[in-house]
Request: fold
Amino acid sequence: MYVEEVALNIKVARKRFSPLPYLLLLPTVVFVALFTAWPVLLSIYQSLFRQRMNIARFREPVFIGLGNYFELFSDPYFRQVVLNTVKYILGTVPLSIALGLLFALLVNRRIRGEGLFRLAFFHPMVLPMVSAATIWMFFFTPGYGLFNTALRTLGYTGPENWTGNPSLALVAVMIVAIWKNSGYYMIFYLAGMQNLPADVYEAAALDGANGWQILWKITLPLLRRTTVFITTIAVIDAFRTVDHIFVLTRGGPSRASTVLLFELWLERFEYQDIGVSAAITVIFIVVLLAFTVTNFLISERREA
Amino acid sequence: MGARSPWRYLLHWLTNLLTAALALLWSVPVLWALVASFRPASEAMRIGDVWFGSHITFENYLRAWSLAPFGRYYVNTIVVVLTILAVQLVTIVLAGFALANYQFFGKRWIFFFILLQMMIPTTALLAPNFATIRWMGLFDTRLAIAMPYFGSAFGTFLMRQAFLAVPRDLVDAGVMDGCSWWQLIWHVYLPPSIPSLVAFGLSSATWHWNEFLWPLVITNSDQSRPLTAGLVRFTQLGEIGAQWSLLSAATLMVAAPLFVAFLFFQRRFIQSFLHSGLK
Reply:
């Protein structure tokens, strides 16, 4: 009787209005409002004005509607930047995920020194991207640099100035990103492989399936959810990491390795163009949200 | 079956060989930088002469340390990382507790609002956040580097999940014993949630130790500049040029503390990375 009464009291207490939960959430809500919601609104607003801080007569904001957006999309430079971003994502994401899977398959066997191999593949992940890029700047050195030395041994005779050559600069930053991220994706595959059902593999072995068939018909389909998850974080990472570009190419030569976020930095902090940089911020947010939502819808439908 | 086993054996060893070759390939950049950092700076590299020089030396580390205020950068990075961590631990525990323990009006909308931060990476908002920090008068301070991360949608989400896993009976028993809300957090919710908290803490520390772009734009002097921004500045100093021994030493110095911590606590780090796919 007493217990029931107390239980009832608890339920009633939980129903009665109390400011406590709101107060507990206040700090988080304030910081999210200040550094996520407000900047989005501010960018949308500022993107409708022409304002350039380094040109005296453009310093005061002037309303120009969607002028900044029209200007951007008719600018061949910006279209180049968008193309570079697409190339960067298509060039890094599938390859680093495939390598992550390969590493996981290689390490997840009965093999001596497994821990050491895992470390070899994973360690780039722990380095700051700027450190990784500095190391690669050294690695890419024309002449005695080990990267070019190895390529020459394999018969490569092309240009060796990877970070300074307009047709190679983007490839160079992509190589560094692939090197750094593959091991990260490996650990997700390794974790996924721990949960694979052993009985399915026993059945497959009894049916005389070979390793190749097992990989394509059983392992990969069972790891599909892992792959979807890794793809999401890989694409977002490709959008928001430009640290290596600062170290290796600074977006050059002549913007050959400039991607969206780097362009945003250039417009805001080099050219002091508030309006255009706000417009790029908005475009950037729309692309990210579109990607997240599509991704969410696709995975929801597959689950259903 | 018997006829196939030698082939299987061969295949097994070929795969091992491939694994070893790839692992070596992946390690060469860092190993080469490590070797180069102990090579006397006076001995320039040439084709065919790229490993240790005539003797092993620590002079590169000492020179790098004297050419730029790396000590200051270290202090700045550590202060920023610890500040973010300390504030985050408080905000995410409180918010996670509110979302897991109470029913209240507008809960779903508040949760959704917080999750917005997971969909729009803070990095993308550097231009407007720069304006906000300037307006607050915090430009070029360590607080400015840390502040945008004080609330964490991901941490809130993680703590909410951890707290929801705490059996309701345990909570009700606590309430019956007369626990106040903070005693409830401290004695009932937190103890079983420590692994989640550690996982979040490790990934937060890693992320902010390595962060570059935001600290770059929001700092302007060595008083507040962290290691990553300091390193990039160092590599672009005119007098450094292509002195790879020196640059390698500086680079490894910046990465070392976290790297060593990782070597010692590999399993925990990897768990935390797995936990926090979105960092």
